[in-house]
Amino acid sequence: MKIAIIGAGPGGLTLARVLHRHGIDAVVYEREPSRAARTQGGMLDLHTESGQRALREAGLEDAFQAIARREGQDMRLLEPDGTLLLQEDTPDDAPLDRPEVDRADLRNVLLDSLPERTVVWGHSLHHATALPGGGHRLHFAEGGHADCDLLIGADGARSRVRPLLTDAQPFHVGVNTVELGIPDIDRTHPDLAAMVGRGNYWALGPDRSLAAQRNGDGRVRVYLSFHTPEDWLTTCAIPFTDPPRARAALAGLFADWAPQFTALIRACDDTVVPRAITMLPIGVSWSSTPGVTLLGDAAHLMPPSGLGANIAMLDAAELGLALANGAADPAAAIRHYETAMFERGAAAARESKHIMEVLMSPKGARGLLEFFEKRAGQPEA
Prior knowledge:
Layout: E1 3-6, H1 10-21, E2 27-30, E3 43-45, H2 51-57, H3 61-67, E4 75-78, E5 84-88, E6 100-102, H4 103-112, E7 119-121, E8 125-130, E9 136-140, E10 145-148, E11 150-153, E12 171-182, H5 185-188, H6 190-196, E13 200-204, E14 208-214, E15 220-226, H7 232-235, H8 243-252, H9 259-266, E16 273-279, E17 292-294, H10 297-300, H11 308-325, H12 330-359, H13 365-376
Parallel strand pairs: 1-2, 1-11, 2-7, 4-13, 11-17
Antiparallel strand pairs: 3-6, 4-5, 8-9, 9-10, 12-15, 12-16, 13-14, 14-15
Helix pairs in contact: 1-4, 1-11, 2-11, 8-9, 11-12
Keywords: Cytoplasm, FAD, Flavoprotein, Monooxygenase, NADP, Nucleotide-binding, Oxidoreductase
Subunit structure: Monomer.
Domain FAD-binding: 2-202, 292-328
């Protein structure tokens, strides 16, 4: 059986690794020209019951331990006037329940665990067509095609595989973000480094927020979020293609906040990445179709709250195990996987949506503090 996985993100690579560990070959088609073609984004907190479980199924627990950053679990929560509401510093002997890992480190661990030719770089799926005898023909934007018996879409929010199964489309959640960054912050801005700390630094207001996150390479990524309509990124008149002017404009939008926040924005480099935040309708499902399925954001795109990548990796592990254990009847294996995945994805999407609503609350940082206190008071499941 020829298996094609579209997308070399955490989900697609985890699936390829689990299949490989069970003696099943797969080809991963990735639009990027190489593993070093671009940065892979910030940190991920890998949860014991999902992302870490997937890495255990992939036989990569030791490799995970080597890249996990326990101190990345530190957190500071502030109000716009600079009032510190909460500070959590992780003890050196704390369990690795939700440690942060650098996305690039995680991707390298997964890539290094696969045979060299598993990932075919520089192949962006344009569309797929069903073949008369079963399977699909993949047509690539760069030209050429490839055939497969089983097509798995791990290609994220704008999946080209999803339309084969459902008409569901992502919709805007009322938030737009801009990513900035400060490289080598300990050397270049030691005062700001001390302020941010070792992990996550959040300041929330009723209509906007600032989040800073320490990365393993010494970079701090800064995320500015605005509770605005979908078209705000094009109507706000911020020149995103001119980083110095964009930084000045963004700092101006926080001029009524404590000076430490505008100092953080002004210290950033020329990385300016605007993003509209979208999600799929909660509970998306489809009639199981032999020869094609989805995982991760392609199946259940949710707001960024720390769950998406974890659920994608768990999807991948569960699908890989289903195919390994049900090799005699792949269609039944996919149905079994999808039944559980629909329920798992819907539950995670509901939780992510709730967290996004808390972050967008008019209460700002105090609303998030109440959320943390309520969750801490709940008994263990």
